Amino acid sequence: MAGFFGFIREKASNYSFGGLIMDQLESLVQWLFGGLPTFIGILFRAMFYKLIFRRLRGFAWIQPRVTFVCVHKLRIGKRFGVNSGTYINAIGGITIGDFVLLGSNVTVSSGQHDIEGAEPPVFARATIPKPIVIEDDVWIGAGAVIMPGITIAKGTVIGANSVVTKSTEPYSVVVGAPAKKVRSRIAAE
Ligand SMILES: CC(C)(COP(=O)(O)OP(=O)(O)OC[C@H]1O[C@@H](n2cnc3c(N)ncnc32)[C@H](O)[C@@H]1OP(=O)(O)O)[C@@H](O)C(=O)NCCC(=O)NCCS
């Protein structure tokens, strides 16, 4: 039990009181609707997530079993689609534009731990917020990881399983770990 209360105390030190309440509310909403199959599930998630996200414009196509954390810092534009198994943690703030598509099992996490020095253990260090921006018309392939603090420029396509460690150029196609530009989506003039 002492371990449990210690965990709560540590978690609370990372959040405001309002943030902690939202964290619990978002877990509850996701437990109720996160795994609901069929079009009804898609509809309910779009409706209820609209109430708890910082901003969700238009209709979002959210497949079952997508995890959202810190939704009070998550802003999403119109026409958002995301496939199952994806994990989006907005602890440092995430802003997503219009017409953005995320494949399955993508990780977008906007927090980092300070890793310098041996003490204290990384486990015990506070999360450093590192905002992520995903601009309009971006497609992120299955299994990709978007590192904290990154901006994915308008029109970028990210290859499956890529690890994106640097911000991208508009309309670039980037692949690999670490992700590198392989071409532009816009034909050279
Ligand atoms: C990024 C992507 C769109 C590029 O497609 P493309 O423009 O047709 O590119 P190509 O297949 O011609 O590949 C170009 C080069 O990048 C490499 N490449 C492509 N995708 C890659 C990936 N995910 N990881 C590593 N390298 C990759 C290719 O091997 C090729 O290298 P080469 O020139 O040395 O032969 C595609 O490969 C991809 O990853 N799509 C995501 C699919 C997916 O996740 N679908 C489900 C989610 S909705």
Q: Topology, please?
A:
Layout: H1 2-14, H2 17-33, H3 38-52, E1 55-56, E2 60-62, E3 67-69, E4 74-76, E5 80-82, E6 87-89, E7 94-96, E8 100-102, E9 107-109, E10 111-113, E11 127-129, E12 132-134, E13 139-140, E14 145-146, E15 151-152, E16 157-158, E17 163-164, E18 172-175, E19 180-184
Parallel strand pairs: 1-4, 2-5, 3-6, 4-7, 5-8, 6-9, 7-12, 8-13, 9-14, 12-15, 13-16, 14-17, 16-18
Antiparallel strand pairs: 10-11, 18-19
Bound molecules: coenzyme A.
Coenzyme A (COA) is lined by residues 83, 103, 141-142, 157, 159-162, 173, 175-176, 182.
Shape: globular
Q: What portion of residues is helical?
A: 10-25%
> What is the name of the CATH class?
Mainly Beta
Distance between the termini: 66 Å
- Bound small-molecule species: coenzyme A
Order of neighbouring strands in the sheet with most strands: 2-5-8-13-16-18-19
Estimated radius of gyration:
17 Å
Helix and strand run: HHHEEEEEEEEEEEEEEEEEEE
Count of helices?
Answer: 3
Strand content: 25-35%
What name is given to the CATH topology?
Answer: UDP N-Acetylglucosamine Acyltransferase, domain 1
Number of domains: 1
Number of strands: 19
Which second-level CATH architecture applies? 3 Solenoid
Task: Report the sheet with the most strands, covering strand number, pairing sense and barrel closure.
Answer: 7 strands, mixed
Structural class: alpha/beta
| Low-confidence sequence ranges | none
CATH superfamily: Hexapeptide repeat proteins
